[in-house]
Amino acid sequence: MKLLLVASGSLCRRALLPRPAVCAMAISPLLRGAGQRHLSTRSEAHATLGLPPDATLEQVKGAYYKLAMMHHPDRSTEPDAAERFAAIGAAYNKILGLPERARRDSKAREGPQQAPFAAAFPPWVYRTAEYLHRVPQRLDTWLAPSYASTIYHHLRREELAEALEVLEEMRLEGEQPSHAVYEMLIRGCTIAMRRPSIGEQPDHLTVNLVQRVLELWGDMEKMGRKPDYLTYIELMRAFGKGGATAQALQLFEKMCNSVRLLPEQRAFNTIYEVCVLNGAYSEALRLFGEHEEMRKSLWKPRFTPVSFSLLLTAAAEQGPELAARVRHLPRLLHEMGSHGVLPRVETCERLVRSCLEVDELEIAQQVVQLAARAGHTIDPKLAAAVAAGGWGQAQERERVRVPADETKPLR
């Protein structure tokens, strides 16, 4: 790739100096309280993004990405961030002629959460290691900035809009983006997307970033840049965050049919997460069967604790076909035992409840035994229901049980 001289001006300044958000102060009054009102004209939509009416499509996209990420409710601490974010999305849809999307469901259930981070060293160790790790990259950016290093520099600072602007400048200068540039931008877009909870609809920024990822993917194919294994995984993650489960499954099937892209644990965990977050529990369990079959080959993709956590959720989460999904638990518990992975007590109790709800008493007993093997003591009511043969029998025994005081002889 051709390197640019330090004296080249704009590119070097972009690489070394942070760039302020475009028209942030100018549009602030326009966004206040605008989340609930309809943008009647295109000029009003342009004003919301701080742009003139004759702004180009790339200028509209650049302003939208900057402002949407700045005012995203998960990033901004301003009290009216949600209203500003909604106004930005409405303005972008109005300019591009896209249909209005429904607001996010705030009552969506939380999916499996990662365990809290436990630091192994004092904080100064991590800060020092991070600084030393970035020294060569900073020197490279300063001494011989290239388009690729500048894009990477912006993505490290979570400046996705600026990175996409550098890509457009790169094309105008006649530079051919490399595979690494496309992969960095696809990953940057995926990271900027919001990870939805189970049953939650993606926000407008996530939906538009998925479309941007598809554009980058199409450009790669046109230029003959063959996506590698990690790029496929990033595209699956983008589809998952955008709610496009069918497209993610098609991409995974394509990987299974290619020797060059045969999935291992990272790809399986990614597609499991996509299915669980979008409520496609039966599809996740179907892929679990393919995972088992593939382990009989020379490839042998591993199961990980993350795999088991997602599959347990797929098997026991409330929803359609619960009885059929619970019947996958014996195989799943067998794999967990063979890998030395034991569930937490909360997970065991959730599995027992699901088994009792669909009258799968034998499977519930297996879960209780696994909990005892892990040293857990489950809820006494659940244990009593399993011992009694189900919820109905346990309630009947509780109803006909005679209190101890009533058995004493009268005096």
TrEMBL record:
Position of the signal peptide: none
Keyword vocabulary terms for this entry: Repeat, Stress response
Gene3D superfamilies xrefs: DnaJ domain, Tetratricopeptide repeat domain
Pfam family, one: DnaJ
Domain J: 44-108
Entries under PROSITE patterns matching the protein: DNAJ_2
InterPro entries assigned: DnaJ_domain, J_dom_sf, PPR_rpt, TPR-like_helical_dom_sf
PANTHER family linked: OS03G0856100 PROTEIN, OS12G0638900 PROTEIN
Protein name as annotated: Heat shock protein DNAj
Natural source organism: Chrysochromulina tobinii
